[in-house]
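I would like you to sit down with the record closing this message with an eye to the fold:
=====
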Amino acid sequence: MVAKTAYEMALKTVLMELQEATASQIKRTFNFRTILKRLYRTLTNIEPVLYESCKLSKLLDRPETEIHMFILHLENGKTLVQECSMIKCWNVYQKFVHANKLLHLNQELSRFFEVELHDNMNIISMRTLTELDALGYKIKQVLSTVTERASVFSSSCSVPKLPDFIIGFDVHLHELKRVLLKDANQVLTVSAPGGYGKTTLVKMLCHDNEIKGIFGDNIIYVTVSRTTSLKTIVQKILAHHFQVNNCELQTDEDANSQLENMMSQMGSERMLLVLDDVWSESQSIIQSLKFPVPGYKILVTSRFLFSNIGSTYELTVLNDEDARTLFYYSVFPSDGSQINVPDDLVLKMVKSCKGLPLALTVIGASLRGQSEVKWRTMLKKWSEGQSIFHSNSQLLLSLRASVDALEHLPIVRDCFLDLGSFPEDEKIAASALMDMWVELYDLDKEGMYTIECLLELSSRNLLNLVVASKDASEPEGYCNDHYVTQHDLLRELAIHLSSQEPIPQRKRMLIEIKANDIPGWWIKQTFQPISARLLSVTTDETFSCDWYDLKAPKVEVLVLNTRGKNYKLPHFIKTMNGLKALNITCYSNFASKLHQLPLISSLSSLKRMRLEYVLLSPSIQSICDLKNLQKLSLIMCKISNAFDSFSTNSPPTLLPNLMELEIDSCYDLKQLPGRICDLTHLEKLSITNCHELNDLPKGLGCLSNLEILRLHSCTRLAKLPESIGHLHNLMFLDISDCLSMNALPDQIGELNGLRVLKMSGCHGLDELPASVANLSSLEAVICDEETSYLWSYYESDLHNLKIDVVEDDRLANFMKIVG
């Protein structure tokens, strides 16, 4: 009893000290304010437990060693909180890892006290601390968005990277290599059901030193989705391997002829073409890519057997030993700590996964840190259930169980299901997901909770989150460079689970139209209007029919995916009075020309609009009629003269509620319309990778509420307008890789709120204006070594300044890509 009382006092004391330290740091630090506020809410919810002895006594009935270790953990947590103000915003690694340590602390508090927090989204479980540290080490600062995008396109036929941990494929690799090199057939197919690791095995083969020695740089890797045409594949190969750009192929026969002609010119060079994930309906594509060229091999991965095309290598499941190893890696912490789960349960779980790598990794991740009861419950469900796809596949049944494991995180589960809104085998921008989820689930507009959802799903191997260029100098939650990929089997699972209810009752309606094959229910539509909040419609390059009417009054998010050169907006969009977010994306090699854009002018509730890789016309001025629009994103769009109408036809009051404008990789943008300066509520302006932009409006300083200004990699932009000194709320300015910038205006010293300035790659700057000595709030300058010398003269005037020198290799990498 005495020991319990002592522990009770110690627990109360250390928790109170942690609460006080958290409250203090919320006031003192900017970097971790969102996470600290959440931690403070958790501590506030815990507080009643501390003062109700009966509840606290139940907690203290746990083993003394566990309570003692938890108290030590809280003391370390107090130190962790106090260290927040010591970590500067330019420290990429420490800021990222420290944030996740705080999230881990919040999770441990919730778990120990078993408090039912009011805000479920705030108790999203994270990876273990060690795994997060490991993730932090992998995050690299890469090229700018345009460089990254150019790299994606230029290397889109290159072999993807290997997973971090591979087990059980050595024998398969040796045998597959032997068959590929010795077999007389030109085509070799690696065949197995989904989740067996076909793609992983083929990646290993392509990265094998012997294979690279034989084929050199002539290993071409193409992912073939169900809707990919022969023309699309050939255009990609011609553009990204043979550097034949702007080659518009009229027919499949034309594509076939041009590719054969290029290959025949290679002489004695050997070539390996990898076609990953070929579906049965695409079998003819393999036949079309066969040419009588010496040394030319085609390696195919497919869930199907193509017995009439070449040879087949059938991939088998992992043996028991390898399956156990992979499962242990997925479920147990890498720091060696013990998890109290009986060995027999582990063996039963491994056996239930049937040796399938995807099932072992996904199920293992979903059980990480779970109690024995959770393990037994999951096994019981498996023994009683049936396949979700009306088959006997244990893998698919297991995958459903991994999604069911998100029952205590309903928003995260919904986010997983939403991923079925995007085309197969395509990258999904994290910022596009943020736009959806902010409106559907009322997540924070800064994006931190979006990243948490993605991290949670990634930790369970339900998606792959690629942090393309995590930069801790960026404001919290910035995720424009992050993107998501997903195994197509998991995408199918999301679509299937979203389609269980009758059509009128579904929360999300995910429609894929091939050619002009409109679903029969849509044509008839004899039932009441659909009640979906999320509507996604995907059409291929051959879609040309008129839209049928669709009654969808409750839709809040509309995702339109196209591959066609011309895309006509559906007429029913004008009746979606509750629409809050609109995403229109072209996934073709050529930007899609957007027609009937004025239909959106009636969308009075629209808050977020994202257009990606589309050809705009002056009709874009109809966007000006959207009185409640808060965020507009134009990504890789062809602007042409679309902005000309802004000065003549736009209304007197221009987008009165717009707070964020993002223009990225719009390569033909030369000037911004002067009326952009009328957007008085604008808080974030991001114009990046627009290489033809040569001037900014003189009245830019009228944007009095602007807090963030990104001009990254606008390579022809020579100067900033003098009016920039009027932006007294500006906290973050990025002019990095503005290669033509030769001077900063004297008025830059009037930016008394500026905290972070990024300017690496501004090689034209010979000096800084003396007024920079007045930037009293400046905390970080991120620049190259040459520019750092210019700032060193002002360090004595700017006492809080930290000069962070970054390696200036991005321009060199960019020149390699475009050269």
